[in-house]
Structures are given as structure tokens and as C-alpha cells.
Amino acid sequence: MALTKNERRTRIKNRIRKVVSGTETRPRLAVFRSNKEIYAQIVNDVTGETLAAASSRDKDIAKSKGNKTEVAALVGKAVAEKAMKAGVETISFDRGGYLYHGRVKSLAEGAREAGLKF
């Protein structure tokens, strides 16, 4: 029997998480994409704490006009700025089982523009 879309994404996500892990020197930028919104957080997996987070539901981002791809770029910039304040410059990118395309790619490029290195 064929896998559902969510089962397939979960398998890909688990395969990625075997390799990509967040440490103190290089935390993980985790992305979650729903149908309407996009969320990003910088996580230290060793201690289990979230260092910075941003989403399209944040007040300043929710006010902005534009399509979902443009909003994702704003989320990437916002999470990068918060990460820089927390003292994080280099990260490892966890696309969460999604293809590196569209909103996920736009978020990554927005984070790179704001100064994160990955």
C-alpha cells in the first residue's frame, strides 16, 4: 500500500534528523510549514532548548502584504536577527522533510541575507 503524504514526510524527516543535529556551537534551524503559516526555530538539541523562534503569525510579519513565499523570506530574516542577538552565527538547516523549494527555500535565503551562515 502506498504511503500517505504525511507518512512519507515523516520518513524523510527521520532520515534527515539522523544526520542533522543542533549543538551549542552549531544549532539547528528547524522549519515547519503548514498550509497557511510557516514557523522556524533555532534549537540546541544537546540541552533541548529553543534559542530563537519566528513565524508568519508574529504581529509585525502578519501585517505585511505579500504571498506566502515572500512572507517566508520575512520569517527567515526575523529568525536570523533573533539568532544573532542570541549569539548564533552558524547553523545547520533542517528542512523538516519538505523539499528545498518554494517557501522553505525562501525562508533559508532570507536567513542567509540577514547574516546566518549555513
TrEMBL record:
The encoding gene: rplR
Name of the protein in question: Large ribosomal subunit protein uL18
Species of provenance: Winogradskyella luteola
CDD domains: Ribosomal_L18_L5e (cd00432)
Function: This is one of the proteins that bind and probably mediate the attachment of the 5S RNA into the large ribosomal subunit, where it forms part of the central protuberance.
Highest taxon, organism lineage: Bacteria
Record keywords: Ribonucleoprotein, Ribosomal protein, RNA-binding, rRNA-binding
Known partners and oligomeric status: Part of the 50S ribosomal subunit; part of the 5S rRNA/L5/L18/L25 subcomplex. Contacts the 5S and 23S rRNAs.
InterPro entries membership: Ribosomal_L18, Ribosomal_uL18_bac-type, Ribosomal_uL18_bac/plant/anim
